Automatic annotation (TrEMBL):
Record lineage: Bacteria, Pseudomonadati, Bacteroidota, Cytophagia, Cytophagales
Cross-referenced Pfam families: SusD-like_3, SusD_RagB
Domain of life: Bacteria
Family: Belongs to the SusD family.
The keyword Signal appears for this protein: yes
Protein known as: Starch-binding associating with outer membrane
Domain RagB/SusD: 256-491
């Protein structure tokens, strides 16, 4: 069986020395796992209305300055093809090892997952991109782009093979390994995205079917407390389908707490902060929008609200004592509470895992896909209410539960349920790095990202040029190196 995923991989793998034992194969696999996304994925929420980012790479794009030389454009392209190269190198060589057929399939499935996802991220952001299925020599770098449809077909076929390869009976991996459920979750997410973009009923129904399979047969369950799920005590939760493991070891811890916290928390930087748009998205305790709520009081914005508001955003009007850690009002910015570990020391060694897929996403994927095809029903509304009620567990200041009434089905139609589902995705997943893809597929960026980002004061004037900015430019260096590629329209 594979070695502990928290062990650091070797930094250089020689083909002459490797592939002679399962231990060496495991080391090569561990190296590829470091290509999985990590907590820095939060930056992508900075391309939506609900979060502001002070990083230059985010601000360049959110303020309309995207160009073929943009650092995030370049890093997405290079990191994705680097992931593809790592997976290809593994798949090109692993058959040299003495592993039995079933274990070979298990290892191949994990690498195929990484390769498929990297191709999809490239396709989603850049459109037509080259499919690369083997390690290319330096003189083989001129590769023509495949069409978006060809890339999508490749990704789906790869994930189908991945699911098959990882479904051998004896594969019982430790937490953090790619499993058939993770592959199904990725495929379900992709089909929801593509089904939304294309208005394709068949894709939406297949997405829903995969999500239902995970819900019914995967053995997962919602974590008992929303706050705890995103702190170290939530690592290993039965809600998590796949996470990037961040052990408290040299080279594996991160500084997310420092990136999110105010200056009063170990001289943190507050690089990523919530906006008014996020705060106003949370409904009242009954699920009613605050714009129409009879119980919402703008002078007491945290009273009678969905409990996830106080579990996600600190009250900016006062100094907060959060389990002994003091968070002072910054005066102009809001601060995330989500992901903050109050027991963290001044060394700023955050080590909570980065959740990549979790059961709550499958709930909302299933509900959204079914609503788009059939409209609302009690089953899908129950999934939303389950997340709302989970948010109340242990949410009071004294650790007791807050009663969250269920939203009733009476009077609901497809449009009103769609609004609830979109709102639910925003407040459930903010900071987890997937909301940009939602705003993108809902075609809401051209409206939301042409409004200023505001907290206590205005933070940033934003610019989004549609339809151009829905597809990013091919990096300039790649066009110079590969004259078989052509630039996307508008750049």
């Amino acid at each position: 069986m594979e070695k502990d995923i928290t062990k650091l991989p070797v930094t250089a793998l020689s083909e002459d020395e490797f592939w002679t034992s399962e231990e060496q194969v495991a080391q090569a696999a561990n190296a590829a796992y470091f290509n999985l996304e990590n907590v820095s994925q939060i930056e992508w929420d900075g391309f939506t209305e609900v979060m502001y980012s002070q990083t230059g790479s985010t601000k360049e794009i959110s303020t309309g300055g995207i160009n073929p030389g943009s650092s995030l454009v370049n890093s997405l392209w290079t990191s994705s093809y680097s992931s593809i190269r790592s997976a290809n190198w593994f798949l090109d060589n692993v058959d040299k090892s003495p592993l039995e057929a079933d274990m070979l399939s298990v290892y191949k499935g994990q690498m195929r997952f990484i390769r498929a996802w990297a191709h999809y991220r490239l396709m989603y952001q850049f459109g037509n991109v080259p499919i690369v299925q083997q390690v290319l020599d330096i003189n083989e770098g001129k590769v023509p782009a495949n069409t978006r449809a060809e890339v999508l077909n490749f990704v789906i076929n790869e994930l189908d093979l991945t699911i098959s390869e990882l479904s051998v009976a004896e594969y019982d991996p430790e937490f953090g390994r790619i499993t058939p459920w993770a592959a199904k979750a990725l495929k379900s997410r992709i089909l929801l995205y593509e089904g939304t973009l294309a208005g394709d009923t068949n894709l939406l129904l297949e997405s829903a079917s995969l999500a239902k399979d995970i819900m019914d047969n995967g053995g997962f369950s919602l974590h008992h407390n929303y706050t705890a799920l995103f702190r170290p005590e939530g690592d290993g939760s039965n809600e998590v389908i796949l996470s990037r493991i961040n052990a408290d070891l040299e080279g594996q811890y991160h500084n997310l707490g420092q990136m999110l916290g105010p200056v009063s928390f170990h001289a943190s930087w507050n690089i990523f902060s919530p906006t008014v748009a996020l705060v106003e998205t949370y409904p009242d305790i009954n699920g009613e929008s605050i714009q129409s709520s009879p119980i919402y009081n703008p002078d007491e914005p945290f009273q009678n609200r969905d409990p996830r508001l106080t579990q996600t955003v600190f009250d900016w009007r006062e100094t907060v004592n959060y389990e002994g850690a003091i968070f002072e009002n910054t005066g102009s910015w809001f601060n995330f509470r989500k992901f903050i570990d109050p027991s963290e020391t001044s060394e700023q060694r955050s080590h909570n895992d980065h959740i990549i897929f979790r059961l709550a996403e499958m709930y909302l994927t299933y509900a959204e896909a079914i609503n788009e095809v059939q409209g609302p029903n009690q089953e899908t509304l129950d999934l939303v209410n389950a997340l709302r009620m989970r948010a109340g567990q242990g949410a009071a200041d004294d650790g007791t539960d807050i009663l969250v009434p269920p939203i009733p089905l009476a009077g609901m139609n497809q449009d009103s349920f769609r609004m609830i589902l979109r709102r639910e995705r925003i407040i459930e997943f903010v900071g987890e790095g997937i909301l940009y893809y939602d705003y993108h597929r809902w075609k809401e960026l051209e409206s939301t990202m042409n409004e200023p980002a505001v907290a206590v004061v205005s933070l940033e004037d934003r610019v989004f040029t549609a339809p151009r900015d829905y597809t990013w430019p091919i990096p300039e260096f790649e066009l110079i190196n590969n004259d078989l590629l052509s630039q996307n329209p508008g750049y």
